[in-house]
Amino acid sequence: MKIDILHVPDCPNLSLLQQRLHQALDTAIDDPTMAVSTVVIPDLEAATATGMTGSPTLLIDGTDPFAEAGSGPSLSCRLYRDPDGRVTGAPSVAALRDALVGHAGSGSPCDAGPCCTSASHETPPRSLQDWRARAAPADPAERAIHHTILRSFATTGAAPGPTTLDHVAAPFGTSASAVLRQLHERDTIRLGPDARIRAAYPFSAVPTRHRVHLAGGPTVEAMCVIDALGIPAMLDTDAAITTTAPTGGHPITVSVTGGRTTWNPATAVVFLSAYAGGGPSADNCCGYLNAFPDRDAGESWAAAHLHIPGELIDGSQAEQLGRHIFGNLLAAH
Q1: Are 23 and 41 contained in the same domain?
Q2: How far apart are CA 203 and CA 154, in angstroms?
Q3: Rounded mean pLDDT, 113-130
Q4: Based on the domain organization, do 208 and 255 belong to the same domain?
Q5: In the predicted model, is pLDDT for residue 110 greater than 60?
Q6: Which of 47-56, 79-88, 100-109 shows the lowest mean pLDDT across its residues?
Q7: pLDDT tens digits along 239-283
Q8: The domain spanning residue 78 has which CATH number?
Q9: How would you class 298 by CB atoms within 10 Å of its CB: exposed for 0-12, middle for 13-18, buried for 19 or more?
Q10: Are residues 193 and 216 in the same domain?
Q11: Domain coverage including residue 191
Q12: 290 is a domain residue
């Protein structure tokens, strides 16, 4: 487990978060591979590239467990609420402990999601396709809840509420909460420490660098660039995809019209991770599936991150992979 604290220079709440994190770690987990580091974020471009939505921001294996929908990159002081609803400069010790424990026990290594491939000799594209076959729910109740979640994101840009899901689950003689836990365990969706839906691949309930503007519909967040490319195929709609490179923040857009795509810049490539980390893809792998303005930029990033195995693919290959993984996800069974 890797923990990063993103902060602006001289952040007044950095020491508070460090103190509470130390207390939480003492009682939450025993992980000899865990590393905690602080990262100074000097400007808004760096905040955008790293995912800092205020100072300080905590990342656990690249994911912000306290992310809030609608929050964007920011250099301002970030405010949190303690269990009594009071505003404070850092999450409470209890909230930090819950986030750490939830992350540490949230899945089994490498078979948990689309970006997290096995240690076999499969290529990253093949591994991603195999994951979809494993993660797609076959149980009728799970499938009904899953489809309801996906359609809610597609039409409203957000996950459905508990009442809606309970109505869907009732005819199957089960509860929405039970089905959500099952979907979470297979990494079809991800639940946060508060049991709310944090992701339903390809959608994210929290801000990411990958946004999809659906024609005649909402703007949705995608878990990674492959997921973003799969959304128009899944919904059979036109869309405008915007993303940024993980270094430099270079903007990349993909226009999807009538099933045809146009990349800007046309030289853009995608890094397809084969990272064999431990745990769900949302927490370990999706952050490594990004677009770059050209192959030189992608190769430079890969050379600086040799611990993350993977390969660069061109735009058409990325589109094909997105369509293959997500194109039939809402198809009737």
Answers
A1: yes
A2: 9
A3: 50
A4: yes
A5: no
A6: 100-109
A7: 999 999 998 889 999 999 998 999 999 999 999 875 533 445 555
A8: 3.40.30
A9: buried
A10: no
A11: 137-198
A12: yes
State yes or no: pLDDT of 294 exceeds 90: yes
SS3 annotation, the chain: CEEEEEECCCCCCHHHHHHHHHHHHHHHCCCCCCEEEEEECCCHHHHHHHCCEEECEEEECCECCCCCCCCCCEEEECCEECCCCCEECCCCHHHHHHHHHHHHCCCCCCCCECCECCCCCCCHHHHHHHHHHHHCCCCHHHHHHHHHHHHHHHHHCCCCCHHHHHHHHHHHCCCHHHHHHHHHHCCCEEECCCCCEEEECCEECCCCCCEEEECCCCEEEECCHHHHHHHHHHHCCCEEEEEECCCCCCEEEEEEECCEEEEECCCCEEEEECCCCCCCHHHHCHHHCEEECCHHHHHHHHHHCCCCCEEEEEHHHHHHHHHHHHCCCCCCC
CA 297 to centroid of chain Cα atoms: 22
150 vs 302, residue with greater confidence: 150
* pLDDT one-digit tens code per residue, 176-215: 999 999 998 888 999 888 888 999 999 999 999 999 999 9
Task: Establish if 80 belongs to a structural domain.
Answer: yes
Is 208 found in the same domain as 321? yes
Same domain? For 160 and 191 the reply is: yes
The residue among 218 and 120 whose pLDDT is bigger is 218
Last residue of a domain, one of 198, 233, 251: 198
